[in-house]
Design brief:
- By secondary structure, the protein is of the alpha/beta class.
- The protein has a single domain, classed as Rossmann fold (3-Layer(aba) Sandwich).
- Helix content is about 30%, strand content about 25%.
- The protein is built from five helices and seven strands; from the N terminus they run ββαββαβαβαβα.
- It has helices at about 40-45, 95-115, 130-140, 165-170, 185-200, and strands at about 5-15, 25-30, 65-75, 80-85, 115-125, 150-155, 175-180.
- It has a seven-stranded mixed beta sheet, sandwiched between helices.
- β6, α4 and β7 (about 175-180) form a beta-alpha-beta unit.
- The protein starts with a strand and ends in a 7-residue tail after the last helix.
């Protein structure tokens, strides 16, 4: 693989958009329903077991977490820095309606106004590929995404599916990627895609 992740470290957690790191480095936003396997995927991608902490309680994480990720392009013998942004999971959080509204307003502002976001990685559970809430998120992002930003659907936990079921997902979502942390399926492909889009400026799929 010409470009690979060689280092990753936690930067900060932000409870408000104002606490986010200064804009500058290209960012990859990971979003998805609670319990979709977001932390596990981030750990697999960065080759770090505990970079992203997994919560035993779905929906508990209510912070925006930032990670500095270093890619090495072996062909050019150069290193590049990307920021991975882990957004709070949606769908399960047991909190008051007013608190949930505050998060949504804050995240809505962040997603729409953060100019350094280059790629939205929307994680969907391959075992439940047709959840209305995921379709709503897809439609929501498509409503404001900028020409210099990309959107990628990634179906997690694909090791739980039969070949026929995986083929059906790809027929209905031809630009999507199927991944499995357990079998390491699709991880290297996603690693390369992120580099191509964020660093090389490749066209979206």
């Amino acid at each position: 693989m010409p470009a690979r992740i060689v280092d990753a470290s936690f930067i900060t957690s932000a409870s408000r958009v104002e606490e986010a790191p200064a804009e500058g480095v290209g960012e990859v936003v990971f979003l998805g329903r609670s319990n979709v396997g977001k932390s596990s995927l981030l750990n697999s991608l960065t080759h770090r077991k505990n970079l992203a902490k997994r919560s035993a309680t779905p929906g508990k994480t209510r912070l925006i977490n930032y990670f500095e990720v270093v890619y090495k392009d072996d062909e050019a013998d150069q290193k590049y820095t990307v920021h991975f942004v882990d957004l709070p999971g949606f769908g399960y959080a047991k909190v008051s309606k007013s608190m949930k509204n505050e998060w949504q307003k804050s995240l809505n502002f962040f997603i729409k106004n953060r100019r350094t976001i280059r790629l939205f990685v929307h994680l969907r559970d391959a075992r439940h590929p047709d959840e209305p809430i995921d379709d709503d998120v897809k439609n929501y992002i498509s409503g404001f995404i900028q020409p210099d930003q990309c959107y990628l659907e990634v179906f997690t936990k694909s090791d739980k599916l039969k070949q026929k079921e995986m083929a059906k997902i790809l027929r209905e979502h031809p630009d999507a990627l199927l991944v499995s942390n357990l079998k390491k399926r699709g991880i290297e492909r996603l690693e390369s895609l992120i580099f191509d889009i964020v660093i090389r400026g490749a066209a979206c799929r």
